Structure formats: C-alpha cells, structure tokens
User: Which sequence fits this backbone?
C-alpha cells in the first residue's frame, strides 16, 4: 500500500511538472509568434490583428488538448466523485457555457470578422480581437454622430450574441448617412433658406458624389437591400416653438461627416445673418 502511494505521488508530481512545462512552452511560443507578427509596426492593421487572434486561439486549443490528454484519467475519477454535485456545477458554469455557445454562433453565422464595425446592445466599435469567451472592441462614438474612436476598449462576453442583436456596421467605415438639423426663426423665407443649403451641399459633396454612387451600389448588391439614394436630402418641419427645422441627410465619407456638418451650418448662419441685416 505504501509503495502504491509513493508511485501515485510520483506520477502526480511528474504530471504537475509536465503541465507547467507545457503551459510555459506554449506561452513563450505564442509570445514570440505575436512579437514576430508585430515586428516594428506601432499601429496594427486588420491582417496583423487577425493573425494575432488566430495565434492566441490556436495556443488555447493546443494547450487544452495537451492538458486534457495528460490529466484525462484523473479527470474521470474526479468527475465520478462529484456526480452528486453535477447539477450545481452546471449552474455555476452557466455563463461559461453561454459564452462558448455564443462563440459557436458567431463562428457559424459569420456575423463579423476582425476589423468590422459592430453594434451589440449599447456597445459600438471596431472588432480588434475575439476568442472563445469574449470579443474585444475599440469604441467608436456613434451616439454623437462623430464616428471617431473614443480611446476606450470594451470586452463583450460572447453570451451577449445569444441575447442581443448583433449589427454589422462595417459599411459605415467608409461612407455614412450623416443626419443633422439646423434650426432658425421664421424671419427669413424658408424656401430661400432651403435653396441656399442645397447649393452649399452640392458644392461640398460634388468631389466625392460619383465615388459615393458606386459605393452605394456595391453595398446594395452585397446586402441585397434598397438603400436611400446618395443625393443630399432636406426635410422641413417646425419645432414646438414654431421655428423652422431643416433636417439634412448626407451620404458622405465618414471622416468628413462632422466637418461637412460644421461648414454647412456655418454657411447657413452667415446667410441668415446677411438676410436679417439687409
């Protein structure tokens, strides 16, 4: 009996050292591969991030296979010994199971890839990494229609893919339907004001209108939906105070959306000032 216990203790000790060796070797190998992929690039592109994510996922998969095969006998014995509390373990690991299920759903549905802009619940951003448990995004400011990176990152548990609608907003990385409003009083002619706004929009959008038309057609064919046209649009309504409200929709390059809004608003205010001053 004593000899058996000694052999069992030696076997467990060897497996522990072998486990540590496997983890350390795989971690170092993964680290060196990531460093090789990054090299001297301070800013990573989508291809770099994709390969880094693949490296980490493969490392986790290989590590799980090695450790399961090494400790399979002990795990079977352990599983039998805790059969009475199996239900409690399932309940305790509910979130983990949901995350794994969400990861399978993401992979099978091909909802997004690294580099895509997505919206999950209240989270908006660019996917920079995903694994079997979570997805890391770099936040993009959609709430204020600036479409700029906020500098924050968010980790989304993959379980949210089972309960929240996942919206792929990748087409907005290049062009966007940018909507904003201009309010003014009723002292000026609203039709003259509308014509002035149209003139300024035509001037500012002329340089990219043809490219916008082609991009709009590509998105329609890819998504199989009929999108609004690329022509600028103005809707005239009134506010609760009886003032005019011009709601403007521009199909424009994402990085120019805020700048175009500011220039059109500034020109309109100058137009309004000149009319009231005359």
Assistant:
């Amino acid at each position: 009996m004593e000899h058996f216990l000694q052999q069992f203790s030696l076997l467990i000790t060897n497996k522990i050292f072998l486990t540590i060796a496997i983890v350390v070797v795989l971690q170092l190998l993964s680290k060196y591969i990531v460093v090789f992929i990054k090299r001297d690039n301070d800013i990573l592109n989508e291809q770099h991030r994709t390969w880094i994510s693949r490296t980490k996922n493969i490392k986790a998969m290989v590590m799980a296979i090695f450790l399961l095969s090494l400790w399979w006998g002990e795990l079977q014995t352990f599983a039998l010994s805790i059969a009475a509390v199996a239900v409690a373990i399932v309940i305790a690991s509910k979130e983990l199971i949901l995350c794994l299920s969400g990861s399978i759903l993401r992979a099978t549905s091909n909802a997004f890839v690294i580099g895509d802009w997505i919206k999950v619940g209240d989270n908006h951003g660019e996917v920079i990494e995903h694994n079997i448990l979570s997805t890391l995004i770099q936040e993009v400011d959609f709430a204020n229609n600036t479409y700029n990176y906020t500098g924050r990152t968010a980790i989304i548990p993959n379980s949210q893919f089972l309960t929240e609608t996942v919206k792929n907003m990748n087409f907005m990385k290049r062009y966007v339907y940018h909507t904003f409003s201009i309010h003014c009083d009723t002292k000026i002619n609203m039709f003259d004001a509308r014509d002035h706004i149209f003139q300024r929009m035509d001037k500012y959008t002329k340089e990219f209108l043809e490219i916008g038309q082609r991009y709009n057609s590509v998105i329609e064919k890819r998504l199989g939906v009929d999108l609004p046209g690329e022509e600028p649009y103005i809707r005239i309504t009134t506010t609760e105070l009886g003032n005019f409200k011009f709601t403007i929709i521009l199909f424009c390059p994402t990085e120019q959306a805020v700048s175009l809004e500011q220039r059109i608003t500034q020109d309109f205010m100058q137009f309004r000032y000149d009319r009231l001053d005359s």
In short: Strands lie at 117-120, 123-130, 134-140, 149-157, 166-168, 175-184, 233-238, 244-253.
